[in-house]
Structure formats: C-alpha cells, structure tokens
Design a protein that fits this description.
homodimer, mainly beta, Jelly Rolls, Endonuclease I-creI, nine-stranded mixed sheet, eight-stranded mixed sheet, 23 strands
C-alpha cells in the first residue's frame, strides 16, 4: 500500500472539490470512511431526531490522479474491504418502497461478529461487504453523494466488492475519485433505503486508462462483465445498461447486432442495483465465459 | 402420472374458454406444448415473413380442477420439464430493448444436444429449462397469452422451473389452468423478446388450497420464497412485488413492519423477470433459510 486517506468527507462529487490527496496512476490507497450517517448512530439510544441529516452519505476524498485527463477512463481495483465491528439500519415513514406503510422512524444497531451481522437473537446474516458510493467528479454540475449517475456515486451495487474492477469515465483533470457508504450486507434493490450501514476502510488501486471511451461505469470481476446505468426510473436504467452493453459488444464481438441481441437475451441478465435513490440503478451482466468463447477483450 | 393433455392451444386466458380436461385436486398432468411460435420456425429457411403472427404464445389448456372455486388458491408443483431437440430465437427491428438499433428480423435455429443449446460453432449454452406462460383464467376480462398479470400468464420468470411450486389466486370456478412457451435457456429480462424458444412437455401436480388469499402469484422452491408482480412498468412491478412480500410477512413473522422492512432490505432481492411484454414482471426473493429462522410458514 502506498497511501492512506482518513475520513476526509465530501458530500458532493464536484470538479470544484479541492484534492485531499494527489497520487500517480497505479498507486494503491487505503481509504477510511464513515458510515452513511457519518457515524452518528452508535447506540440504540441515539435518536434519529437528534441526527444531523445534512451529514448523510459522506464519501472520503477526493483523490487526484496526476495522469487523469477528461476523456480518459479510471480503472479502480478493489483489493480489500475492512469493516468496523458494528453496523446500523434504519426504516421508517416515507423511506423506501414500504415507507407509506410505516409510521415514524426506527433504527437498529447490528453488531458484526465472526463475519456475520447479528440481526437479532434468532438471525445472524452472513456478510456481503460492498461499497455503496464510489465515483469521480462529474464534468460541470455538482452531484450530491446520495445520487448515482454516469460518474458513479451512490450506485448501491452488490457487485462493487473485493476483487471487482470498475471503470469510470473521467470528466475532469485528476478524476477526483472518492468512495464511502460501505454496507456489511444488502439485498438487490436496497428497498428500505439502508443496507447494514457501516464504517471501515477500502484498499483500492487507481489506474488511468487511455484510449477507452465510456458513457457509464462498467464492472469486471472473475465471473462477469457488467454495464451499470442510473436513470430517472428503473425502466430507463435497464434500457441504458442494456444499450451500453450492446454498444460495447458490437465493437468487440465477431457477429452482427441481431446475433448479439439473441445472445444477450439468452444468457445476459438485467439486474437491479437499487430503487430508492434519487435516480434508480440497474446493471446488465454478461457471463465472462461466454464472452471469452469469442475472445472478447475490454 | 394421471393425465395427458396434448397441444390444445389457447391464445388467451379467459373464463369463457371451454375446459380441455377436467381433473381433481391432487392429480398430476403431463402437458405437451408447442413453442411460442406454434412451431412455425423449424429450419433456417422458414421465413419470418411467412409466419402467422396470430399464432404466437400458445398455451396448452385449459384444465378445469373440480374443487377450485373463486377465492381459492391453485398450487402448481412443477415435477418435470422435457424439451424437444431444437429451439429457435428471433431478434429484430422494433422488438425488445435493442429493437431500435436493428434493421429487419433474423431468426436462428438452436439444436439441443447433451443438455446444451448449440448457439454456434464456438458457443454451447447450458440449458436452464423454464416455463414462460403459466396461469389461470382471470375473473372477467380475457387476457392475451402474451401478457402477464395477477392470473400469471406470460411472466417469463427463470424461477418457474423443475422443483418450483407456484401459487395462483383462483378467479373462476375450475381455475382453468394452462401453460406453454417453454424456454431452453433465457436471461433475466429476456431483453430481445425471445429466450431459446422450444416445444416440449411439463409434468405438473395441481392442488386446490382453501383459506389462503393472494393478490398475485407466489413461488416457493428449496432456496427461496418469492412474490411476483406484473405492472405497467418495471418501477410499479418492483413496488408491487415488494409490497406483496411485506404483506405476506407481516401476518407470519414475529416482528413489526419496521423490522420486516430492514430484514427485506438487508437480505431480500428485487429481481427482474422480463421487461419486453405488454406488462413488465418483477419478483421479490426472500431466502428461505432466513424465514425459517423465524418459523415462517406460508
């Protein structure tokens, strides 16, 4: 590991944010981050009423990568995720898909022990650690860290975990990378607005890739190659992730688009990342063994 | 096996359809069915232009179950799926998510051999046999067999496969069950409008359950308990499947709805069945081992 960055919270992705750290392409950084509530809920007695709702979804950063220029791609390899020893969940009125069925807010501390989250006396949940917020600065506008987009941000995607490589389009010099909002466990959709929210640290390798064009983040892991899109509704997000995949395959597969459409329909999966943020996020997942049959390379 | 029913095609689910077979609750029926094109595409030379598009999505049935009355539930256990030795796919202009990027229609015969679909010389796709169209007659309206709904129909849900049990609300005396549209393989979303479409037969056990109320189909298999909803768009389908799950758990779990929302958010998954039929279909999947921790019984 080359660098450490500790809890330098930003609450929006913006090209105007001053770098918290400057590194070179290829450097590895260990990034420490608060939970999505800036660690304000630590005991069952911490009331939601007393919480400062301005300090939601902190991301640690931004990190300026010297070689990154507008139009490049930033390749982020997640080498390690370390979680603190307790998480927290919240559910309540107006929050998430079931928000209209709930009265008032409730929170719940979830101790982490032996790689499980202790939900209650009966149930311990095996962890699936993941990163909720991760991305780069957008080109002009400032985007709240609770919102996803082509720059990444609050995608709440289960696949953003140890071993995954994510590619982001770079919109501004230095890329201005940041991450936060770790989850100890979460289901696809994050229907109640929180996963098991938790503080911790993430070790990432950051590399600049030249000559690759992207509209939206793309993820690669051992099993699959995945496009990710965030749009005003789920319908649009699914459409965009599917179209992004078709566009990428069209350039790299030895077949016409009709056959690509059949292939995607037969073996590709449209999946839901989250449906509770200001934009919704979907992904299109192609099994890598299928792509490798055709010598696909990204 | 008690009964056989061969290719008695219906093209709409309707309480007005005359029964093709009458059985008693608990009987097992082997149902033979054409592919979604009524087997019109058999060789690479069969042109799409010559196809009768009125004969799309045949379902075999309907089967009248003597004990079934309006307000009951029909429990369908899928004991066996047998596929013919070749399937077919279609992609083209105006069809599916990529339809706007395609000019003209193309089809492709896919031989089935050794439990794989031969996509081309490079790629053989392992089969995941499933039933695209399955359901009962709706209460009043007649619903085209290409459209899903509370009665089931064209849900194109990967989970509707061997070993699964599906529960349908019964809207009319006898239930009038039918199924068709087998797929040898399909990805979630069915983004190009076809999976590997294929003819074959399905062995199902049909049982009437009294005293259980359902809004929409529910599926149970070894791993999970799943609600399924079809709505005008994916957003609404996801919302309804999630709400259906919350309503079912609320009656059967030893905890309040806030905690149920947290549990669903932490371990439940919102997933996509299909996004290309006249209504879109989503499912909410809860791991059964989690529910069993709380002695959940449906």
């Amino acid at each position: 590991m080359d660098f450490q960055l500790c809890n330098n919270s930003i609450f929006k992705f913006s090209s105007k944010n001053a770098p918290a750290l400057k590194i070179n392409s290829g450097d590895v950084v260990e990034i420490h981050t608060y939970d999505c509530f800036s660690n304000q809920l630590q005991t069952p007695e911490d009331t939601l009423d007393a919480m400062d709702w301005e300090r939601i979804n902190p991301a640690t950063g931004p990190i300026y990568i010297e070689e990154a220029k507008e139009g490049d791609v930033l390749k982020v390899t997640i080498e390690e995720i370390n979680l603190n020893n307790q998480g927290v969940m919240v559910a309540g009125e107006g929050s998430g898909i079931l928000g209209h069925m709930l009265k008032g807010m409730e929170s719940k501390i979830i101790p982490i022990k032996d790689n499980e989250g202790i939900f209650d006396e009966q149930l311990s949940i095996p962890l699936n650690p993941m990163i909720g917020v991760i991305g780069v600065a957008p080109s002009k506008e400032e985007i709240n860290s609770g919102t996803p987009g082509p720059h990444g941000g609050n995608m709440d995607n289960l696949m953003i975990t140890t071993g995954a490589t994510i590619y982001f389009p770079v919109f501004t010099d230095g890329a201005l990378f940041a991450l936060g909002d770790l989850h100890a466990a979460m289901g696809d959709g994050e229907i109640g607005v929180t996963g098991i929210e938790i503080a911790g640290s993430v070790k990432v390798k950051l590399e600049v890739v030249k000559g690759l064009k992207l509209n939206n983040p793309v993820l690669e892991n051992k099993e699959s190659f995945t496009t990710i899109a965030s749009e005003i509704n789920l319908e649009e997000a699914v459409n965009q992730a599917t179209i992004d995949m078709a566009e990428i395959l069209k350039e790299r597969m030895p077949m016409g688009l009709h056959k690509i459409a059949m292939l995607m329909s037969a073996v590709g999966h449209t999946e839901i990342c989250q449906v509770v943020d200001p934009l919704k996020t979907a992904r299109f997942v192609m099994p890598k063994w299928v792509l490798e049959t055709y010598d696909f390379k990204f």
